[in-house]
């Protein structure tokens, strides 16, 4: 094994967690019937120039999941009730963690079979079909393409949420500071596009480290001040419903999945670890990180809804008293944090688009620069256009969680696990039964969440 030793935890350990290009390897077309995986350990053959420490990997996953979605958790509880929301958040967290386990385990199995050190998300999914039933192997390349498209769509829609969030927060602040200025929210979105276009031209991940560093600091300070408001004069539990309405549950599940799901960053983090054997397991990096995330999300959702009740907004920061200085600081810091995070999240879809669509068609230094600038400007403009068309935060969050993240985070792992182990589904085909349940849950969340979010949008307009 030729992994360089690096026991320190440097800032490079905490840069963007969205490097999907890293460690993606083209899967060789071989027959699963001729491969022997008994003597190959992929961990021993990984060549990583700058491996990430165990602590660094833990912080990567925490950062990928503890984003702005946590601010929507009180609104999720408004759609579920205190008791059901708390229990269901833990259940969804367990489900998301289990599905990530399925994907990582499938990647390890395929790496041993194909004698490849590591695989990315789309390569893992495509390879599962290569090793699945013979009649499905011809779909391997199609599956890889579908996963890449799904990732691009997910991050694109998530960035639309960022634009709406920044604009609404800025509008609140400007209205407080300058009451006579009554710009429409859509105008703020157009104004926000200008600085986003500028920062979007930063292409190298290493130059985004300061973005990530300051975004994390702003986010932590904002959470601290928000909790200060949440725990002031907390109402009695009897003033809030323990269970809401069945008709509101699709919104709850969609928001929780949106807030919690970080499937796009898991494979790159695991592939870049210095000690990948510590990723899974009972006390592994994944379980510790997700347990922490679930506990924080359940706590914020519970006490946020307990504090504001039916008046809870799509983002709890919008509930804070804008006339008070600490609340103004929260809104401003969150805006800056989301702005700095925008470029990091944009790295994933642009990297896929560039490597698999544009790069093979562009040659020459000047043409490459022009193509990069054009691609980045069009992408940013696209997120702003969608945000302008739908300037309503809650339905967008619900739609992204229902369509994109439920498909990638729950449906996809269940399909991959079924295809990969089709010839060995366990006693009484228990794996098939379990995966069918996951598929049905995902499809139900997808359909019901989509219907609710589209209905909300129609009602607004």
Give me some keywords for this one:
single chain; 461 residues; mainly alpha; Amino acid/polyamine transporter I; 65% helix; disordered N terminus; transmembrane helix; AA_transpt_TM; L-amino acid transmembrane transporter activity; membrane; Amino acid transporter transmembrane domain-containing protein
Residue share in helix? 55-70%
If you compute it from the alpha carbons, what radius of gyration comes out, rounded to the nearest whole angstrom?
22 Å
- Find the CATH superfamily: Amino acid/polyamine transporter I
The total beta strand count reads 0
Q: Quote the CATH topology.
A: Amino acid/polyamine transporter I
Level-1 CATH class name = Mainly Alpha
- Secondary-structure element series: HHHHHHHHHHHHHH
Major sheet, described briefly? none
Strand content: under 5%
Structural class: mainly alpha
Quaternary structure type: single chain
CA(first)-CA(last) distance: 60 Å
Number of domains: 1
Q: Which residues sit in consecutive blocks of at least 5 with pLDDT less than 50?
A: 1-36
Globally, the shape reads globular
Task: Count helical runs.
Answer: 14
**Mean pLDDT metric:** 81
CATH architecture level-2 label? Up-down Bundle
Membrane topology: Multi-pass membrane protein
GO molecular function: L-amino acid transmembrane transporter activity
InterPro entries: AA_transpt_TM
Organism: Aquatica leii
């Amino acid at each position: 094994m030729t992994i360089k030793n690096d026991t320190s935890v440097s800032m490079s350990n905490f840069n963007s967690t969205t490097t999907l290009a890293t460690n993606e390897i083209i899967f060789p077309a071989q027959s699963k019937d001729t491969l022997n995986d008994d003597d190959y350990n992929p961990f021993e053959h990984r060549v990583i120039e700058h491996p990430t420490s165990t602590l660094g990997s833990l912080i990567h996953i925490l950062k990928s999941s503890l984003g702005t979605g946590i601010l929507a958790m009180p609104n999720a509880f408004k759609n579920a009730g205190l008791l059901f929301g708390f229990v269901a958040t833990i259940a969804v967290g367990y489900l998301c963690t289990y599905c990530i386990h399925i994907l990582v385990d499938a990647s390890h199995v395929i790496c041993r079979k194909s004698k490849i050190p590591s695989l990315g998300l789309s390569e893992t999914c495509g390879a599962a079909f290569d090793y699945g039933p013979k009649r499905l192997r011809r779909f391997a390349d199609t599956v890889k393409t579908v996963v890449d498209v799904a990732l691009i769509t997910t991050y694109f829609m998530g960035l639309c949420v960022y634009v709406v969030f920044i604009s609404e927060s800025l509008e609140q602040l400007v209205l407080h500071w300058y009451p006579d200025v009554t710009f429409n929210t859509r105008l703020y979105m157009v104004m926000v596009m200008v600085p986003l276009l500028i920062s979007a031209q930063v292409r190298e991940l290493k130059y985004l480290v300061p973005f990530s560093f300051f975004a994390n600091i702003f986010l932590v300070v904002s959470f601290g001040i928000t909790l200060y408001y949440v725990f002031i004069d907390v109402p009695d539990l009897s003033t809030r419903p323990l269970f809401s309405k069945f008709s509101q549950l699709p919104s709850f599940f969609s928001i929780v999945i949106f807030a919690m799901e970080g499937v796009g960053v898991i494979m790159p983090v695991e592939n870049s670890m210095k000690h990948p054997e510590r990723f899974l397991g009972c006390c592994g990096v994944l379980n510790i990180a997700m347990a922490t995330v679930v506990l924080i999300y359940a706590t914020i959702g519970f006490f946020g809804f307990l504090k504001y009740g039916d008046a809870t907004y799509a983002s709890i920061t919008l509930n804070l008293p804008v006339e008070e200085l600490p609340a103004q600081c929260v809104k401003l810091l969150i805006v800056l944090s989301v702005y700095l995070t925008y470029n990091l999240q944009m790295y994933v879809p642009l990297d896929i688009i560039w490597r698999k669509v544009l790069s093979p068609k562009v040659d020459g230094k000047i043409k490459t620069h022009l193509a990069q600038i054009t691609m980045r400007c069009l992408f940013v403009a696209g997120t702003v256009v969608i945000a302008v068309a739908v300037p309503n935060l809650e339905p967008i969050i619900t739609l992204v969680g229902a369509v994109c993240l439920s498909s990638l985070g729950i449906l996809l792992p269940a399909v991959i696990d079924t295809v990969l182990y089709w010839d060995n589904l366990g006693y009484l085909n228990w794996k098939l039964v379990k995966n069918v349940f996951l598929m049905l849950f995902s499809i139900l969340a997808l359909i019901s969440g989509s219907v609710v979010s589209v209905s909300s949008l129609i009602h607004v307009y």
